[in-house]
Amino acid sequence: MRWYFVLILALLSTGVFAQDAPVAEAAAAVPDPAIKAVSDELATLRSETNWLWTCIAAFLVFFMQAGFAYVEAGFTRAKNVVNILMKNFIDFCFGSIFFWLIGFSIMFGPQIFPGFGIGIPGLADSLIVKDGTPDKWGFAFLIFQMVFAATAATIVSGAMAERTKFVSYIIFSALITAFIYPIFGSLAWAGLWGLGKGFLEQQGFIDFAGSTVVHSVGGWAGLAGALILGPRIGKYQDGKLFPILGHNMSMAALGVFILWFGWFGFNPGSTTSVSGGNFAVIAVTTNMSAAAGALSAMILTWIMFKKPDIGLSLNGALAGLVAITSPCANVSISSAVIIGLIAGILVVLSVLFFDRIHIDDPVGAVSVHGVCGAWGTFAAGLFAQESYGGVNGLFFGGELSVVLVQLTGIGIAFVWSFGASSIIFLALKYTIGLRVSEDEEITGLDILEHGNEAYPISK
């Protein structure tokens, strides 16, 4: 019977019965408790639809772990594939546990310093279970934030590929998801749980889905690791660069397609709601920036090297995706294309720059996530439009303060993530060790670290 009343109310709301006096009078005669029951039912349905969308988006972001694994495996040598797959697999497992144990409450819990953002460490259960009763929205929110934390962790593995001890890497994965990522995230996103906004949120910082909160934090951590590790054997000799090519571009390309697909959960899913249709706008801006980034990277490599480069073109798409992650809800399609085009150029120049200064990043993770994450966050302060996200950037009549807040967030993220990661990596280096031995690196990490091979030779 309740669906009869739902239908009546829906038709009334659309004006279908506006000219039908007898039906309108009949609706008016419906007892108030029945109307309230239907209203409650609609409210519950709306909430549960939002929970469903948030969980589906979380599942898409989880699938991005497969994308990262394939991109990084494709860009590395065959003798290290098992190692890179293990890192991308286990960092999600460690990340889930430690974000639940500590990270979630630091990011969203009651604040140690009210108005600053950093929460009191503790189990996520303390926030999503009240008096023994599960808060169903809390569980949806937790899984969504958990897969974001794991993304920040897995970015690091690519920058440190082919020479990092497995045990040292997984220790760092636990620490970045427990402390490094959530502490900065609390400054930008603490208010999402409703217990008080973080410092950057209060200033109007725009980072809708995490160009800086997720990607730059992971990218700058990877930069710290690559610097402290040093380059792979044979990469730089007598001041010259000797490229070390990845073993499987098919695998890398499939990984990028998976990541692109997963990004439709990453960005549109950050609405955590289907109301208003904003997720559709975000899906379009996300897609267009990725396409533009791939094209500009391809064209630039074609001009510079006389041939279109597959590796940098793939990274161009990822650069566009990373860059649009911050402003995706605040910009038009045209602006998204411009942001992506610039990101594709930046990632190529950045990869070449880091090679020139002998910082060895096998997959370009620092350039894609650190540099282009910073660019996307800065771009939000330039291209934001009030009609999309409620605030105008500098190019649309906004104040300079909008840009300055973005630069402040970018700066804090770099200092915090690079600084904290450097301390952890140095501590690991001088205790259990960070880098494998020269013999292990030459032989390959698969056999000596895992006793297995990705491509065993049949006898």
Automatic annotation (TrEMBL):
Protein keywords: Ammonia transport, Membrane, Signal, Transmembrane, Transmembrane helix, Transport
Gene Ontology CC, one term: plasma membrane
Bilayer topology: Multi-pass membrane protein
Bilayer-crossing regions: 50-71, 92-113, 137-159, 166-188, 208-229, 241-266, 278-303, 310-327, 333-354, 366-384, 404-428
InterPro entries assigned: Ammonium/urea_transptr (IPR029020), Ammonium_transpt (IPR001905), Ammonium_transpt_CS (IPR018047), NH4_transpt_AmtB-like_dom (IPR024041)
Pfam families referenced in this protein's UniProt entry, alphabetically: Ammonium_transp
GO molecular function per UniProt: ammonium channel activity
Protein's GO biological process: ammonium homeostasis
Cell location: Cell membrane; Membrane
Ammonium transporter AmtB-like domain mapped to chain residues: 53-455
Superkingdom, taxonomy of origin: Bacteria
Signal peptide: 1-18
Similarity field: Belongs to the ammonia transporter channel (TC 1.A.11.2) family.
PANTHER family from the UniProt entry: AMMONIUM TRANSPORTER (PTHR11730), AMMONIUM TRANSPORTER SLL0108-RELATED (PTHR11730:SF89)
Designated name of the protein: Ammonium transporter
Origin species: Leptospira tipperaryensis
Lineage: Bacteria, Pseudomonadati, Spirochaetota, Spirochaetia, Leptospirales
